[in-house]
Design a protein that fits this description.
Strands 1, 2, 3, 4, 5, 6, 7, 8, 9, 10, 11 and 12 form a twelve-stranded mixed beta sheet that branches. The chain has one domain: TIM Barrel (Alpha-Beta Barrel). The longest helix is centred in the last third of the chain and has 14 residues. It contains eight helices and twelve strands. The N and C termini lie far apart (about 70 Å). It is globular. By secondary structure, the protein is α/β, with parallel strands linked by helices. The structure holds iron/sulfur cluster.
Length: about 325
């Protein structure tokens, strides 16, 4: 007799760390009882950095910069993660919801134009509570959800009272690639469902300065040697989100020396691939949106052990895992 199919348990009320089901891994870790899940994290938020960041899409940056908060741990675990010190090694410091709220308010005070939550899926309960606490204390900025796209649609619904702008990266529609690089053959299906849920009820809205205050930007990191997969993702965007979201195509893929030995493309995008990519962008008539120039080299890769992991032009640190709050120069 074949085994009974696994039935995903329904969510009951507010997302929690108990028998954790926050992401599609559904690993049921008892995070409230001290266990760590596949994401590597327990039930306290852990953060590596909060900074004013000037390298995001122009509609998210303005004059003050995007108020990025980089969380430690990750639910997807790409083999080529440029933030591997945080996502894989767990670099960071545990914070309670009150300190998280203080970090949001410090970013606002420093001039940030939004709060940009980078890879927060495994901390959804703490984030909902912490943003609520910050809002009650005067946070008025839009909140961005900057993620791998590997999400449960149910969790996206739970976040809708908290998040104003969605910023998922739809990396591939090929289950084989997702299995090889993320150990997640369900990634394409999960990401497509989550991104469609994000778009529901989120038409693009801008403020007087032209900054995005509500809506969806769908990113796509182009993988060298996988241009046909980029074509599939762009075709999906054109079909499902064309005209109601912004595409943002990223060409910054860089092999990571510290992750050598893991399966991942071994070189950056070539100029020939970049030209083919530009043709694809034209072919799908994606409308308003963004794409990166091809910038060779790895000097820009962040090092989260430094007070400012990025260059001075790209970011200014407001809070650091080893230093706490830092005075802006
Ligand atoms: S968020 Fe972490 S603990 Fe929860 S299901 Fe996903 S991997 Fe497991």
């Amino acid at each position: 007799m074949p085994p009974a199919p696994f039935v995903q348990p329904p969510l009951s009320g507010i997302p929690s760390y108990e028998l954790c089901q926050l992401c599609p891994r559904l690993c049921s870790a008892q995070r409230d009882a001290g266990e760590r899940g596949r994401c590597g994290q327990g039930n306290r938020m852990r953060i590596g950095l909060a900074s004013l960041h000037f390298g995001e899409e122009p509609v998210l940056v303005g004059k003050g910069g995007s108020g990025t908060i980089f969380f430690s741990g990750c639910t997807l675990g790409c083999t080529f993660c440029q933030n591997h010190q945080l996502s894989k090694q767990g670099l960071g410091r545990d914070v309670d919801t009150a300190e998280f709220a203080s970090i949001c308010l410090a970013l606002q005070k420093a001039g940030a134009v939004n709060i940009n939550l980078v890879t927060g899926t495994h901390f959804i309960p703490g984030i909902i509570e912490g943003i609520g606490m910050a809002r009650a204390a005067g946070l008025s900025l839009p909140v961005l959800w900057n993620s791998s796209g590997y999400e449960r649609a149910e969790m996206i619904e739970a976040l809708k009272g908290t998040v104003d702008v969605w910023l998922p990266d739809f990396k591939t529609m090929d289950p084989a690639t997702a299995g090889r690089y993320f150990l997640a053959t369900d990634y394409p299906e999960a990401a497509a469902g989550a991104i469609l849920a994000m778009a529901e009820g989120y038409p693009l809205e801008y403020d007087e300065a032209g900054l995005l205050r509500r809506g969806l930007i769908m990113r796509h990191l182009v993988l060298p040697g996988k241009l046909e997969e980029s074509g599939a993702v762009l075709a999906w965007f054109a079909k499902h989100l064309g005209g109601r979201a912004l595409p943002s195509i990223m060409t910054q893929y860089t092999p990571i020396e510290a992750l050598k030995g893991h399966p991942a493309p071994a070189c950056a995008l070539s100029p020939e691939e970049y030209e083919r990519l530009l043709s694809l962008i034209d072919e799908f008539e994606l409308g308003e949106g963004f794409y990166q120039e091809l910038v060779p080299g790895a000097e820009w890769l962040p090092d989260f052990c430094r007070d400012n992991p990025f260059s001075a032009e790209l970011a200014r640190t407001v809070w650091h895992h080893s230093r706490g709050f830092m005075a802006l120069e």
